[in-house]
Amino acid sequence: MKEKGITKNTAIGVIVVVIVIAAVYALLTGGGGGELNASNLTFCKSEPQGFQDYEEKPNATYSRGDKVWIYAEIDNVRTETVRGEKGKVRIWVTTKLVIEKDGSQVKSTKETGSVVKIDEDRIGELFTKRSFDTSGLSAGNYTLKLVIRDKQAGASETLEGRFTIE
Fold first, then answer.
1. Domain boundaries in the chain?
2. What angle do CA 22, 73, 66 make, to 5 degrees?
3. Planar angle of CA 152, 50, 40, nearest 5 degrees
4. Per residue in 63-96, pLDDT tens?
5. What residue intervals traverse the membrane (predicted)?
6. Considering the domain 35-165, what is its CATH architecture?
């Protein structure tokens, strides 16, 4: 009588297929996401208008009372497929500004952000823009920290830049 059952090679083949299916599913649903990456922190002359659409402020020097706009690009956020909306993904990114002078925090903003639906083919064009008022800051050199959080992935990244108030 012949023994019935799954051979070792068949079992290994099934496991490999399951792993491949899981990997493809993770990529399609955003389960992978990669490591959050933020770059290109730029101090701007005015409000950025879109992805790579801004005018840089030379030397990042402002007068007291000016409104400061910053721009940064964001990559590798975790996405979630939006059911019933072909080609749409959902992201949840928040940002917070921390301003320091001589190593001490002098100002910070509330963490803000929301869940946003975007076209899947625009995922490579993510950016953030934030502003703050300088009226409460005295003349001197400052460090700005932009904290970016990918709430779905539980990841964060901080960009730093320097600016001056005359």
1. 35-165
2. 150
3. 70
4. 999 999 999 999 999 998 888 888 889 899 999 9
5. 12-34
6. Sandwich (2.60)
